[in-house]
Amino acid sequence: xxxxxxxxxxxxxxxxxxxxxxxxxxxxxxxxxxxxxxxxxxxxxxxxxxxxxxxxxxxxxxxxxxxxxxxxxxxxxxxxxxxxxxxxxxxxxxxxxxxxxxxxxxxxxxxxxxx
Amino acid sequence: xxxxxxxxxxxxxxxxxxxxxxxxxxxxxxxxxxxxxxxxxxxxxxxxxxxxxxxxxxxxxxxxxxxxxxxxxxxxxxxxxxxxxxxxxxxxxxxxxxxxxxxxxxxxxxxxx
Lengths: 115, 113
Known about the structure:
The structure holds 2 protein chains of 2 kinds.
Chain A lengths: L3 E4 L2 E4 L5 E7 L5 E7 L5 E8 L2 E5 L6 E7 L2 E6 L8 E9 L7 E4 L3 E5 L1
Parallel strand pairs in A: 2-11
Antiparallel strand pairs in A: 1-3, 3-8, 4-5, 4-9, 5-6, 7-8, 9-10, 9-11
Chain B lengths: L3 E4 L2 E5 L4 E7 L7 E6 L6 E6 L5 E4 L2 E6 L4 E6 L8 E7 L9 E2 L3 E6 L1
Parallel strand pairs in B: 2-11
Antiparallel strand pairs in B: 1-3, 3-8, 4-5, 4-9, 6-7, 7-8, 9-10, 9-11
């Protein structure tokens, strides 16, 4: 009954590889996010989709490409992985986005280690 | 103007003590101020939230104090317990922020038994 799920939970890969992280929410929300959390715990927003439409695209290298096949799914594909991409990536979803009463529901995170 | 400044970075409190985490914002258009709690290995989860039309909100041992004129808000954890040890994020959203919630940098709280 997990509200926001992510796969995989752990991802260890070599520099230069391409990898994907998947996210699914069963809360019926219409907005989904990707965040990057570094070793100092700082949460940095990367992307947001509302009803499958990209609405937030922060200054993220274009090696990162989000895809939302439907409102319940938001995947993140990363090309040519670099050492600095090592972090925990969180997916989140919300309703009431943009209304000033938004609560975000976070997934368990994907721990990416690039060697 | 979109920043939310959070302090301290880390905090150690004795069991039974009061933990206080402070946040300040610039954008007066913000109108919703949630706090998130993150345990190690988990994603952040909403703990408590406040709107600027009230100066205080209490839920159990957790209280948000809000000072609209100073553009500051704080989280107080009364009778802190070792189980409260986590990272706490303040956040702000609403107004011209659109769909974006702005998070503070986080405070790592450790409650000593």
